[in-house]
Design goal:
about 55 residues, mainly alpha, 2 helices, globular
Length: about 55
């Protein structure tokens, strides 16, 4: 895991939905990783494991 934290502000509606999740941190980590792999690292996706590590 990176030692740096990523932080964003959400709309109140989205914030409430995300905070209602039983595993908010795990869900956020998963969806951000999936989006980054799909949108930012298209050529690298096949070489990454599910948790984002090589």
């Amino acid at each position: 895991m990176s030692k740096k934290v990523v932080s964003v502000k959400l709309t109140e509606y989205v914030d409430a939905a995300v905070r209602s999740l039983p595993s908010m941190t795990a869900w956020l980590r998963r969806v951000i990783t999936e989006a980054a792999q799909r949108e930012l690292m298209k050529d690298d996706v096949l070489s990454l494991s599910k948790d984002g590590r090589s």
